[in-house]
Task: structure prediction
Amino acid sequence: MIPLAHYLILSGLLFSIGLAGIIIRKNILVVFMCLELMLTAANISLVAFSRAQGTAGLPVYDVQILSLFVTGIAAAEVAIGLALIVALFRARKTVESTALNTLKD
Amino acid sequence: MEEHISNLVSADYTWCQFCPTFALVILAALLLLTDAFLPKLPKRSLAIVAALGCLGTAGYLIADSGAPLTLLGVIACGATALSIMLAFDYKKITCDSVAGGDCEEGTGEFYTLPLVACAGILCLLQARDLILLFVSLEVVTLSSYVLAGYFRRNQGSVEAGIKYLILGAMSTGLLVFGAAWYFGTTGSFLLSFDTVQRAISGGTAASNAVVGGFLMANALLFAGAFFKVGAVPMHLWIPDVYQGAPTPVSTFLAVASKTAGFAVLLILIAPWMPFIIPGITVARLFVTVFAVVAAATLLIGNLGALTQNNAKRLLGYSSIGQAGFILVFFITPSAATPVMTAGYLLAYALATTAVFYAIAMVRTQRGSEEIAAFRGLGKTNPRTAFLIVVALASLAGVPLTLGFIAKLNSFVVLVNSMSLWGNLLILLPIMILCAAAGFYYYFKIIRAMYWDAPRPEDSPLQVPPTTGIVLSLCAIGLIVLGTLPLLLNW
Result:
């Protein structure tokens, strides 16, 4: 059986990669993938903890419910995000975050 | 307060707690269906029904109970109703930016989505565990993303939508990761006194790793809440989104969504309250973090506003600055924190809504949101100009307005908590500086209205009836409650 720590390290790594990607990458589509990565990383932690805290071989189902909600909300976020990206592409013919320059001090 | 805490121990929800939420969701669904099946129906009727629904819910909440969190619900409902009514006055620009020309097609959701968001806020106020908190917060945020980017022919709006979505989704990620670790270290999603006590003072699996993980979880959860209120490390979206989003949506974000953020903060902080006393190591950390965040929020919000020329962007920075004053209540949380937060938010909500109405009116008729577009209103529309002055004066904290009492409260709380936490003295000069800065930047708009002469082509603004009524009511409310603060029972 794989110990809990391994899952947590994997999830922490994915989370950091996602966060770094949001800060570094310029293509908004890639930024979106990184956002999804962060949520997925959180989901891995959730499911790992639900197994680790479980009793009598059963996981804690509350946590798995939350991870289902997270998946659903991530999907909704992507739907909205892609719609906005399409609108941006129509207006600017690019999806680079450097094109987001109308609003500034 | 004891009663409040003991309620937190078990999160047994009852169906009737969620009646207002269900009512709003059902109303929103009905309006969406009406919009889909009766496309010829003027969208005005949708807006009126939606605003009335929100006002009705606010009335129900007032009658229902006087719990501080319910007061936040009343403010959120009222603010949603007002932003829907503003959308109604803003129709010309909405139609032009969505479908082009005067065509109303595709603007129906603009009036119904705020209802969904408002339902999310009401659900959020009932949350006593992280699952409900997370899901209802996301209902609010997801609808706000759509609303912020709703004007698809307007580059600013689309850009605001994308920026809001990227930063918002990032904060969601932090929140979920925090929730995972919260469960991992405590074995429960309940936001209760017992859970916190178990985690920080030992209990079953006492070890440094558990305490460390629990603190990290709380840091991530608070970061998610800070994003909604616009506290400093997470404030970057506010000026851009407020400036780019359609004005009714900016109103919603500035008032209702910020109220939701403070509700999250109150819910997260409630189980911590008994532990924030000198002598507990964690308490010291907690107070330091909140004091630093409050100071940074005050400074960046108020000093950033000084150089702004766009009225909406100015209000964005102002909302960061005002959040800083509210965060002062959270440095040493006590049983009075929710009431004081609600009071400050009421002052902020009345004044900010009034100013956004004024901005929308100027934008519709003079085509600009710059402060310079307010030129000469003192001459052409003396009465409206006076009402705007009252709102701005309240935001700045001029005595005899509600804003003064709210700011005063913030100072009093800080001075009181200095008896236990002497180091908080550093915050006092920062708050004084920021309050003074407020007088400069809010008065920029007043100066434009009275000192700048109107240009020959400037005709007096036509004040739409809704705008007139809302401006008057907000100004009257600010002055009456400001002169007779006991009416509020703080």
Notes: The interface with chain A takes residues 130-131, 134-135, 138, 142, 145-146, 149, 152, 155-156, 158-163, 165-166, 169-170, 172-174, 176-177, 179-181, 183-184, 187, 189, 239-240, 243-244, 304, 307-308, 313 of chain B (CB under 8 Å). Residues 1-10 of chain B have pLDDT under 50 and may be disordered. Residues 276-490 of chain B form one domain.
